[in-house]
Write a structure and sequence with these properties.
Elements (H helix, E strand, L loop, with lengths): L1 E5 L4 H12 L3 E6 L18 E5 L5 H8 L4 E4 L6 H6 L1 H14 L1
Parallel strand pairs: 1-2, 1-4, 2-3
InterPro entries: NAD(P)-bd_dom (IPR016040), NAD(P)-bd_dom_sf (IPR036291)
Protein name: NAD(P)-binding domain-containing protein
Length: 103
């Protein structure tokens, strides 16, 4: 199965990627690295079944492109953390609500 994980470089998304790859799936990780970390998925570098795409769920063209290549989407991308949401409420709402609409 081919899977897309939005927010795949975050804690939960990176662990999900590991499990999907362990069972033999192909995984595309879409993340803008706003709260996720490349270090969480660095061990996947060179894995032929794993692909990292740097980008935002707010980019409808990019989302359409990667969604067209997969069988299932795990949508985990979100603005997280109290400080971030308090300091950037509009951006957080856009990511969490509009991003979900686009996905």
């Amino acid at each position: 199965m081919r899977a897309l994980i939005t927010g795949g470089s975050g804690f939960i998304g990176s662990h999900l990627a590991d499990r999907l790859l362990e069972r033999g799936d192909q995984v595309i990780i879409l993340d803008d690295l706003s709260t996720g970390r490349l270090a969480n998925i660095a061990h996947l570098d060179g894995d032929p079944n794993a692909e990292f795409v740097l980008g935002s769920v707010l980019n409808a063209d990019l989302v359409d492109h990667v969604v067209s290549r997969v069988d299932v989407v795990y949508h985990l991308a979100a603005a997280v953390g109290v400080n971030l949401i308090v300091e950037k409420p509009l951006e957080s709402l856009m990511t969490n609500i509009r991003g979900t609409e686009i996905v």
